[in-house]
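Archive entry: two folds, one per protein. Generate the first.
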Amino acid sequence: MFVLAGFAVATVVAISRKAAAGIDGQSSRDRRVILAAWLIGYVIVLVLQAALSDSASAQTLAFIALAGPLILAGIVYIMAAVLGRDLPALGLGCWLVIAGVSCAWQAPAAMLATCALAGGGGFLLIALIEIRRRA
């Protein structure tokens, strides 16, 4: 799994570098801020999972493992929307945070379903909106 994750990260980095080649200034700084937020946020989520693994309930661990990344993604999308003045990204970020926070009162299996359906559904919806906007 770590090999596949490493391959996915390497692919994203390679594609991102190619897409951002020759772009500098404020866009470059914004991109670095967003990347730093992703990295720091995921490290925090992983540290929380490790720190609470022996002492927390199954529901708490499921919330951190499943809803934590969803909430983090929502917060980063909100930040990116503010930096880039992108209203659809702001809507997606708010939706992801709401979907993630709503998992706090659910059983672990329901959390998984909510995060998958609401989170994935939000990404699919925003993709359709962006396709229509650009057409």
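Generate the second and append.
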Amino acid sequence: QSLEDRKNGVVAEKREEVTENKSEQERKLTRGSIEGIIVEWSQREDKPYVQESLTLLDVAEDTKLSPRLLSEFLNKYYNINFCTWINTLRVEEVKRLLIERPNLSLSEISFMVGFSDPASLSKIFKKIANESPSTYKKRISA
């Protein structure tokens, strides 16, 4: 065997080791344990999902899950992508604020929950909740 062939063999073996380790780590994480991790993250008191410009990588690092595993889990079991998941959490927070703090403006709420502006909040709220924030507020206070 030439030196080049031996080097390529070592590289291939190392690549297989990494793949095996990754698969083993992922096998240890069951659907329930991954779901437990993300539910716990989403219910933390500090509400990490309200951070503006939150990325998949941020959440993956925070939860100690690989970005790929987190994304695949959300797609496979929740049938949503990362952005929709985060926006759904934010919309739930908006609903809570509309009920508990009705004097807050939509502008104030949008910045509190991680949206860049009230128009973005309204657009996403309507897409997820099937009604505008103002319609929701009127309906719940009626």
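Annotation attached to the second fold: Residues 98 and 138 are 10 Å apart (CA to CA). The mean pLDDT is 87.
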